[in-house]
Specification:
Radius of gyration: 16 Å
Number of domains: 1
Helix content: over 70%
Oligomer: single chain
Order of helices and strands: HHHHHHH
Largest sheet: none
């Protein structure tokens, strides 16, 4: 498999693992998964020059926001996979190891903490949410699961 295709599959697979975790978390703990329509709404407003909202849920809906959000979610996963491979080196694809993938996955939590949450009105690291420490913990766990997914998907590619 060529490198670009491996990066794409790894990113898509890791993102899917993260989404499966979201479904399991909802079923076991009653914590709803992320609403990617709100991500789509945020991105949609960027096209009109608005990058920060007081509360994205009260912003004007954008046509196709759910699709935009889901596409962005998976595209970001692919970009993050490329980032891991760039940092860990191409050899990681042929011999994926868990530690760099987990560390990188945890590092990706900077994106929601420093960009997405402030831009959508939740504050830096969910500081404006009703339970910021709970939101932070859930973000860290979810991004660790994404890191696990990076490793598991790359490992599965090597088996097939």
């Amino acid at each position: 498999m060529n490198v670009v295709l491996a990066m794409i599959v790894t990113g898509l697979g890791a993102t899917a693992v993260m989404d499966v975790w979201g479904a399991i978390r909802k079923r076991l703990l009653g914590i709803p998964p992320a609403d990617y329509a709100m991500v789509g709404r945020w991105i949609g407003h960027m096209a009109h020059g608005t990058f920060r909202h007081d509360r994205i849920a009260t912003a004007t809906p954008i046509p196709g926001e759910r699709a935009i959000g889901w596409i962005a979610h998976y595209a970001i996963g692919v970009v993050f996979a490329a980032g891991l491979i760039w940092i860990a080196g191409l050899q990681w694809l042929s011999r994926p190891t868990l530690a760099p993938a987990l560390a990188f996955g945890l590092g990706t939590v900077a994106a929601p903490f420093l960009l997405m949450q402030p831009g959508m009105g939740a504050g830096v690291a969910a500081s404006r949410t009703p339970k910021p420490w709970s939101a932070r913990l859930q973000s860290l766990i979810t991004h660790a699961v994404f890191g696990f997914g990076l490793w598991a998907t790359s490992w599965a590619l090597q088996q097939g």
